[in-house]
Structure formats: structure tokens, C-alpha cells
Amino acid sequence: MGFTEKQEAMVKDSWEIMKKNIPQLSLRFFSLILEIAPAAKNMFSFLKDSNEIPQNNPKLKAHAVKVFKMTCESAIQLREKGEVVVGETTLKYLGSVHLQKGVIDPHFEVVKEALLRTVKEAMGEKWSEEMKEAWGEAYDQLAAAIKAEMHAEA
Ligand code: HEM
Questions:
Q1: What is the pLDDT of residue 6?
Q2: CA distances from 38 to 69, 111, 133 (A)
Q3: Does ligand 1 come within 6 angstroms of the Cβ of 147?
Q4: Low-confidence ranges of the chain (pLDDT < 50)
Q5: Closest ligand 1 atom, CA of 67?
Q6: 1 Cα–ligand 1 center, Å
Q7: Which is nearest to 126 in space by CA: 1, 15, 2, 5?
Q8: Ligand 1 in reach of 152 Cβ (< 6 A)
Q9: By C-alpha distance, which of 26, 10, 32, 3 is closest to 109?
Q10: What residue's CA is closest to ligand 1, atom 23?
Q11: Which of 92, 135, 138, 139 fits a 20 to 30 Å CA distance from 113?
Q12: Which of 104, 133, 107 is nearest to 119 (CA)?
């Protein structure tokens, strides 16, 4: 079965709620990434030289927002078109940034886990297995597009 209207709504509605608190959301997201994979720290310019996660860092927020927002856009595309379509320029940019920073395929699983746990904590009682599936599927399809571009470029 394809991506349903209900799944799309679950992702969109939870993102609408979460985006009201970007500072907290992005800090939590990065804390979880580093909890799952401490070595990932060295890839991020804003984490490399500090012992703790910087509060209110624009780059940290930008990356968190990009990951959540693009996953939400993927959910919309999956429902509308049945596939994730990232514009060619954006995809090329994403492919080269991640390659250049030393990101490898397993890192995408780390970020997925951190993303799902962030949504779970933020949504509290509204969290459900269905919501997890919807966010997970939208993220996987987006990650697949980025990874394919990285492989093509490497
Ligand atoms: C940079 C998006 C997954 C590590 C970026 C940038 C974007 C982006 C848009 C450019 C930064 C900016 O100017 O905003 C995404 C999306 C992802 C994803 C949509 C998944 C769907 C990952 C993963 C890792 C990662 C899995 C590794 C754990 C990085 C690093 C940078 C970066 C290290 C450079 C940031 C810096 O030091 O300033 N990403 N990313 N990203 N991404 Fe990702």
C-alpha cells in the first residue's frame, strides 16, 4: 500500500507542533545523535571544538530543521506522487556536502533513530506506532535519494 493521506497528515500535524519549539527540538535531536553515535561529533563544524552541544547555534538549528522539514516534504510527495522527488540542484548539493563531511550510509540510520526518538518525546501521548511508521518511511525515502546521489558522486 502506498503512503496514505492519514500518514501524510500525521507527519504534517506533528511537524506543525514541533516547529514551534525549534531550539529545544534541535538540541534534543543532536543530543540523541551523539548519544547513539558519539563519533559523529567530529563531522559537524559546530561540535568539533566543544565539549558540549552549543546552545542556540544557528548551524545546529539549520541542520535539524532541514532534516525535519525535508522529511515532512517527502511525506507530502509520497502521498501525492508515490515517490520522493528532490530538485536536482538541491540533491547534488546534499550529495556533495555529506560526502565532503565524511558522512557514510550507516550514519543515516543513526539520524533516523534520533529523529524518531525526538518526535516520540515531543508528541508524548499523541505518539503511536503508525506515526513512527509514517515518519520512518518518509525519512527512508529521502535518505535513499541522498545516498544514491552520494554513491553516484563518490
Ligand atoms: C549538512 C540536510 C543527514 C551530517 C547538511 C546540509 C543540509 C543537510 C541541507 C547543509 C547545511 C546547511 O547549510 O543547511 C540533511 C538531510 C538529511 C541529512 C535532509 C537526511 C535526510 C545527515 C546525516 C549526517 C549529516 C545522516 C551524519 C550524521 C551533516 C554534516 C553537515 C551537513 C556534518 C555539515 C554541517 C556543518 O558542519 O555545518 N545536511 N542531512 N547529515 N550534514 Fe546533513
A1: 97
A2: 24, 12, 26
A3: no
A4: none
A5: 19
A6: 30
A7: 15
A8: no
A9: 32
A10: 108
A11: 92
A12: 133
CB distance 68 to ligand 1 below 6 Å = no
What is d(CA 10, CA 74) in angstroms, rounded to the nearest whole number? 13
Q: Which of 98, 139, 102, 95 is nearest to 117 (CA)?
A: 139
Q: Are 8 and 78 in contact (CB under 8 A)?
A: yes
d(CA 83, CA 7): 14
Residue 121 C-alpha cell reads as: 518525546
Return d(Cα 149, Cα 154) in angstroms, integer: 9
- The grid coordinates listed for 69 are 522539514
- Ligand 1 within 6 A of 40 CB? yes
ipTM of model: 0.96
